[in-house]
Amino acid sequence: MTGAEAVSAAAAVDTAAAGRLIAASFQELAVSQWLLDEPVERERIMAAQFGWFAEHALKYGAVDVVGDDAVAVWFDNTVEAPWIEAYDERLAALAGPHTARWALLDETFAAHHPHGGPHWHLALLAVRPGQRGTGLGSELLGRRLAQLDAAGVAAYLEASSAGSRDLYLRHGFALMGQAYHLPGDGPPMYPMWREPQG
């Protein structure tokens, strides 16, 4: 099945599997390599953390999927919601000696997150390696953005590469000023905002 009808909003999803898919998809990103240059350990930590994010989104947002090949994790920032319970402690137990780097990334994202109005936050969007360029990312975006447009709700994300930035531009997102760089020798991140359309 192709097109928007192939996209489902998961009321229940294997969040651990979603985390593994996202982690595998993100391995080549500069931000991932900035976090940790050892790929096996990096993927292990990211897979668990992204699984937590998917689990949180099932309660306070949405997880959209295209079969087992693509997933988008959205947080609903139009409502007050608690963050992941015992997140800092769980992250420390998971990441061990690498915790500070992960915490620095979280802090940097939080410092640049806009607080000007209610919105949905596209926290993660991933397509399985080997399936990129087939339109799955656009399928995921199109369905959820149509719902946000109908509800009159804005959307926000941080693009982590020029390629993803350009994808989001094609879907109505606009850059929020200049890109910022992660601390030290970090790569650029592109904060983007989308007003409801139509």
Shape: globular
Q: Structural class of the secondary structure composition?
A: alpha+beta
Mean pLDDT: 92
Kindly estimate the percentage of residues that lie in beta strands according to DSSP: 15-25%
Order of helices and strands: EHHHEEHHEHEHEEE
Alpha-carbon distance between the termini?
A: 27 Å
Uncertain parts: 1-6
* Total count of helical runs of at least 4 residues: 7
Strand count, sense and barrel status of the largest sheet are: 8 strands, mixed
Give a description of the structure:
Helix content is 43%, strand content 21%. It is built from seven helices and eight strands; from the N terminus they run E-H-H-H-E-E-H-H-E-H-E-H-E-E-E. Strands 1, 2, 3, 4, 5, 6, 7 and 8 form an eight-stranded mixed sheet that branches. A hairpin with a 6-residue loop joins strand 7 and strand 8. Helix 1 (15-25) packs across helix 3. The longest helix is centred in the N-terminal third of the chain and has 21 residues, at 39-59. Mean pLDDT is 92; it is low at 1-6.
